[in-house]
Amino acid sequence: MTLVRFVSADGERTIEVDVAPGARLLDIAQAHGQPLEGSCEGQMACSTCHIIVAAEDFAKLPPASEEEEDIVDFAMHVTRTSRLACQIWTSEALDSLTVRIPGGAHNMQGR
Fold first, then answer.
1. 8 φ, ψ (degrees, to nearest 5)
2. 19 pLDDT above the threshold of 80
3. What is the pLDDT at residue 103?
């Protein structure tokens, strides 16, 4: 199991979720009410599932592909630990992961 922590953009709310290996972070976020749209449905054609991975967890993840890095460049509030939630999958080696929802995140599909 992987403990995933979603921290709100203002840092005031944290949701913790235990998930099995093989789960996609975008699906986990959406299932737990996080404002990540994923308008391309995980096809890496948009940046609406941009998240900021905690610095201490960033190195635990496989490196982003060049294509993912190019898409992340279009997101708002990008940091050096920015990733796309559609490209992160839980694994048995990943015991915990903390991510912050960037400021300006909106889920237009939930309205």
1. -65, 160
2. yes
3. 85
Whole-angstrom distance, CA of residue 22 vs CA of residue 9: 26
Tokens of residue 32, six digits? 């737990």
The three state secondary structure string of the chain is CEEEEEECCCCCCEEEEEECCCCEHHHHHHHCCCCCCCCCCCCCCCCCCEEEECHHHHCCCCCCCHHHHHHHCCCCCCCCCEEEHHHCECCCCCCEEEEECCCCCCCHHHC
Residue 107: name the closest of 3, 12, 9, 15 by CA: 9
**Residues in CB range of 48: below 8 A, 6 or more apart:** 36, 37, 38, 39, 40
CA–CA separation, 28 vs 90, rounded Å? 10
Q: Is the pLDDT of residue 11 over 70?
A: yes
Q: Quick count: other Cβ atoms within 10 Å of Cβ 85?
A: 24
